Amino acid sequence: MSEVLLVAKHLSNASDEDLARVIGIRLMPSSNFGDFFDLASALLKPQSVSGAIAGLTRGQISAFTNLLNNQSKSADQPYLEVLVKLFLVYKTVEDGKTKYIPFESAKEAFKQQVGKGISEVTLSNSTPVTPFEQIDPQAGLSAFETVQAITELLIDLEQRYIPEVGRGSVGLPELKRLALHLGRSVDYAKALYSIAQMTGLVTLLEKRWRVGASYLDWLQGEPEQRWLHLAKTWRMLLGEDSAIELVNANSLDTAMKEIFPLANDGISSHITRLLSLAELIGLSSNGQVSSWFAPLMQGKVEDAGKRLALSLPKTQSRVIVQADLSIISVGPLPTKTELELRRFVETERIGVASTYRINTLSITHGLETGLTGESIRALLAELSGSAIPQPVDYLIREAASRFGRLVLRATDKGTAIESKDQVLLTHILNDTTLRPISISRLDETTLLTRFELDIVYYQLREGKYAAIRKDANNQVISNWSAAGIQDKTKELPKSVLMDIKRWRDHETRMGEAPEGNDIVRQLELCIKSKGSLTVLVVVNKENREFVLEPTGLANGRLRGRDRKADCERVIPLSSITGVRLG
């Protein structure tokens, strides 16, 4: 059996938790995989295997070494079980005894990396320990800023069309725009996408970055709950056994080097990512662990969250509404207030004190989510404790009166752009920035483009056109989940666990009632890997099974060697009702 088939088989037998962890560790875009064979192929790529080897602890390295030398001890078993869950080793039962066998790719990568030498770290008892009173304030601020920045990223994904670039990447222009918006570096923006993807907050779907299945829970949670979501993911990616070893750590960098001696400083290193993430989410500050680090490593996550909460900036419910259309919050807003405000404002600067701005587009967005001009004015008056400035009042009334002047509808030919304002339509038609979506005139009140509704909507918003979408029932479409408003025809993108369920359903279908393309794909994979398979065939209205070594696939027929009958069989694909590999 080829290694791809072997790994795929063990992946299908693994628990959802183990699959989710290995996908997170290796930063795999699960939505890109159609089945366990796709995942197995990705896991077996040399860079992926090397990264997994680099993340082994000293105990796991020792157990792997003993396994390769046929010198395994009973004390190695817990470590070998971890290696099984990392899909570097698999186990079988022979004569009632459990036998551990390394995958060939893991064996070669391990020999190569161990051959370069294992680092030795001397832990000095004289190293000064920084008091938590000095570490916690900065660590708490880092945690707050990261939670706030991720929230900005998520809301940004709801309001913009961010395409996938290459395989699972974000375009540099989008990273630069986010970095500028946050006042941070491009590397910081890239790290935010990585964190959000690892924690299920963002995902890739249909070549577009979207909010993930954990998005609503994140938005509805208080800062402490949001942070716990990140911290639990960090601990999960680290692993239970490694977490216990870090309970007494003071310097996280030194402790990680001691526990993971094969870890390198490369940007793709799993341990490097964990150290960077620890700084971002406040588990450490300048390499020194915070007071909530040890409880988290012990599995006392609620205790860790309570300790962190003491170092987070306190919330307040007042804002300053200014005549220049800016809104200033002198401190973090309560979650409910923040979400209400974010329905109709754009952020200019985020931090402990934040600055927002309202404009025609932001007000239009709020109206899309079900707000009215009156409710927006009332909220601003309540939060500011005074009457809103006249320019702000005028902008809200003007945006409300123009709401619905430019409407987009999905058609069988693409998207219709409708308006009774012919000057506006002519302006759109002649706008050079909109040429990529190839707009043409259909009649006096309608323009047409072949592109789908969402692409046109976001493209027009980028051009500062206050367009809205309407469905077949003439209802305004708003899929902005941050306000609890979502287009009922759409679902939030799938989580990793839902992708795993999809793979399991696919495997079940393959065994019971596979589709033609599924069968062909499995047969081609088996032929390429020179493996064997069990074919379920209907012969004279009877179900029969043949174990074959397939040799060819052509003209709608499978040709393979039946070792049991010592003959070659040629089976029409139309007669095959199921396939089991291995």
Question: Can you offer a commentary on this structure?
Answer:
With 582 residues, the protein is of the alpha+beta class. The protein folds into five domains: 3-115, no CATH class; 132-309; 319-395, no CATH class; 407-465; 515-581, SH3 type barrels. The protein is 47% helix and 18% strand. The strands form six sheets. It has a five-stranded mixed sheet with strand order 15-16-14-13-17. The longest helix has 28 residues, at 132-159. It is flat and about 90 Å long. 37% of the residues are buried. Residues 483-492 have low confidence and may be disordered.
> What percent strand?
15-25%
The radius of gyration over CA amounts to: 28 Å
**Helix/strand class:** alpha+beta
What level of helicity do the residues show? 40-55%
Please describe the biggest sheet, giving its number of strands, its sense, and whether it closes into a barrel: 5 strands, mixed
The total of helices stands at 25
Total strand segments:
22
Pick out the low-confidence regions. Answer: 483-492
Overall pLDDT level: 86
Physical arrangement of strands within the biggest beta sheet: 15-16-14-13-17
Count of folded domains: 5
Shape: flat
Please give the alpha-carbon distance between the first and last residues. Answer: 6 Å
